Each structure stands twice: as structure tokens, then as C-alpha cells.
Amino acid sequence: xxxxxxxxxxxxxxxxxxxxxxxxxxxxxxxxxxxxxxxxxxxxxxxxxxxxxxxxxxxxxxxxxxxxxxxxxxxxxxxxxxxxxxxxxxxxxxxxxxxxxxxxxxxxxxxxxxxxxxxxxxxxxxxxxxxxxxxxxxxxxxxxxxxxxxxxxxxxxxxxxxxxxxxxxxxxxxxxxxxxxxxxxxxxxxxxxxxxxxxxxxxxxxxxxxxxxxxxxxxxxxxxxxxxxxxxxxxxxxxxxxxxxxxxxxxxxxxxxxxxxxxxxxxxxxxxxxxxxxxxxxxxxxxxxxxxxxxxxxxxxxxxxxxxxxxxxxxxxxxxxxxxxxxxxxxxxxxxxxxxxxxxxxxxxxxxxxxxxxxxxxxxxxxxxxx
Length: 371
What we know:
The chain is α+β, with helices and mostly antiparallel strands and 371 residues long. 37% of the residues lie in helices and 26% in strands. It is built from 11 helices and 13 strands. It has helices at 19-29, 34-45, 82-105, 110-114, 132-140, 158-172, 196-204, 260-279, 297-307, 315-324, 331-341; strands at 3-11, 15-18, 51-54, 118-123, 147-152, 177-185, 207-216, 225-236, 244-249, 252-257, 289-292, 349-356, 360-370. The strands form 3 sheets. The protein has a 9-stranded mixed beta sheet with strand order 5-4-6-7-1-8-13-12-11, sandwiched between helices. It has a two-stranded antiparallel sheet with strand order 2-3. The chain has a two-stranded antiparallel sheet with strand order 9-10. Helix 1 (19-29) runs antiparallel to helix 2 and helix 8 packs across helix 9. The longest helix is centred in the N-terminal third of the chain and has 24 residues, at 82-105. The protein is globular and about 60 Å long.
């Protein structure tokens, strides 16, 4: 018995900004001199990102007097508190999550939509209670006895943990139909203190949501291709635990992201891949395609070098990075949607990874299957 992803839907806020526009906002807000503006611009120019999305319209405004979220001052003081950021999260996260969920379910039979038995929500950029899970049940018209699980604060690999949980549910109950919804409003947590960690984080992160339906492979609702969830494997690196962190501060959530993250991934991903393949009773030569979380251009390049992959093997991840930026946990689901939307042959094995605090390497193997 196995389970599969039958459909994927995505959504983003209405505010779409090109990378140069965001660079200008960040340089002005941080009060940078000419030398540091040039340093910051180099980070943005080499990010591999062209556009990003945000629930905050202020990032596209030239005049601080027009701000609707940040204070109308050039230095953004008094800076927005964590409470104010969470209030915006509570207003906006469910709206984007609902659109993603409806986009996931829109082409599926009505019986599938009304038959959702489980809901798993994923987010590391905000929380409240009664929470996103209950709001989504009400917005989507799901039954009030829908079983709910919330996966919070796990960072960019959270969605793979959600798929793993959905897989467990569907293997245990062949009648289960599990909706997984990831929503991340990363830009709520913009920090203006001039540190390299902040500069890099501010250049990468974006807002978005993705939803997937997981169900028993023998009862897949789609008439097209689906993704069978074949195997999961996780490992964290204690020696790199301080290289990436996500902490709650007085003015939003604070990212720690050192330059050693890329080196640690490059150093360890091949060994982790070997263990994943071994535990799945597979050989690496059986892998036909890749779905790597585009945490940044350098992370994709590190995986390519470590696994000796051609750059084109990550073309879908580069596309997502270029078009959306890093939307934390939702991003890997955007990559999988592009893979589903692409014409692929049956029985194609896909290796997928996402990385996050720990330093955690969360991997899975999927297989395409036609109805």
C-alpha cells in the first residue's frame, strides 16, 4: 500500500516586486553609504532571483509617507513589533492559504473535495490560536470533525515533514484524504540592523502558500499524473547546529544564516543521499529527476557539485527561485508543482531535499505514476 500526491495548488500575495526595487528599499531603510550600497547590490545581483512577493505593499513605495505597515519615517522607527507582525499574519495568512487550497482542489471530483478527512498546516513565520487550521476548515467548508495537525517553526523543510505525516495517515487508513497546506509570510520579519545575516535573509525570502492532496495511490482522484510517496529520510548535523537558526525577537523573528551553511551542505549531502538510497533499497543510478529546495543559488550549486549533477538537473528549482524567491517551507511544493505540470514519463524516480535549522537535511524519494 502506498500514498501519493494527487494535486498541488499555489498562491501568492498581490504585491509582486522585482529584486532591484526591493534592493532600493533595503538600502534606504538601512541608511547605507555608497560603499555598503555597492556591497548590498552585489548580493542582490547574484541572488538568482528576479521577483518576489509580499503581503507588505511598502516594499514597492518610494516615499515613506505612503507606508501603510511600517512607520512613515525614513529609518522606520519606531520599528514594527512582533505583536504587530503577528496581527498582520493572522489577517493575511489564511487568505493566501485558502486560495492555494482551492487551486489544489478545483479540478478534482466534488466527492474528493467534500471528503477531506485530515488537514495538516505548515508554517514557521507566524502562529495564533484558534489557528490557521480551524480558519481553513471554516473557509473551505470542511467538516468540523476533520482531524487537524499543525507543523510549526521547522523552517524550510517543514513541508516534507507534513508529507511524511500525510503518508503515515494514508497508509494507516486507505480511505483518508489528507490536505496539506503550507503558508509562509517571510517578509513580515524584515530586520534592518546592518549584519550580513540580515542582508542575505532580506535578499532571499518571499511570501507564498502551497497545498497538496495526499491520498491512497489506488484511489487517486486525479485523471493525470500523480507523485507516489516512496520513501523518507531525515538527518541533522549537530556540528552545524549553530549555523542556521530562527528565533523570536521583540521586532519579529530573527534569522541566523551563516556562510558555513552552504559548505556544510556541500560536505554532507552526498553521504546523506547514500544513506537515503540505502534505506530505500535503491541505487542512485535509479534517480531520474531532482526536486531540491532552492534556499538560494549557492545551495543549489553546492548540491550539484556534491552529487556531481549537471546544472540543468535543477532547472525547476532555479525557475522557482527566479520567479518567487525563497518562500521557506512552501517552496519545495512549488518545485514539485512545476514537475507535475511538466510532461514526464511514468515510473520516474525523483530525489528531493529541503534544508533547515539543525542543520537538518530532510529527503524523500517520489515516483511518477499515471492514472
